[in-house]
# Entry
Amino acid sequence: MAIRKTSHARYDLWYHLVWCTKYRKKVFQHPQIKEKVKTIFQTIANHYDIELGEVSILSDHINFSISAPPRIAPSRIVQILKGTSTKMLFEKLPFLKHEYWGGEVWTGGYFIRSVGQGITKQQIDKYVREQSEEI
# Structure
């Protein structure tokens, strides 16, 4: 993990983020759709100076390891990613408008954990990589 920098800070902040699709609908089942979703999140991350580590898109939820400058609060990171991705998902994947006529793709809640003592970025990346649909 390299130390990143802004004009006023040096940092190495990583988070593990997870959230679900609204109603746990399994809308991201096809590999092509998963790739589009991943591309959308990468585009958003690049625009906001957020670094995506591992990304795992399952049919009804998403897992990230993510880094952002300290000026962006973790709750704001989630707000940016969820809000912007919703707009882009409706644009790029029109079938979602029929699934989510109310205009929301994601649930209101999310899980976030910071990387630090006791859990490393490598452990989170490994966990995210190994996510599968199997129970």
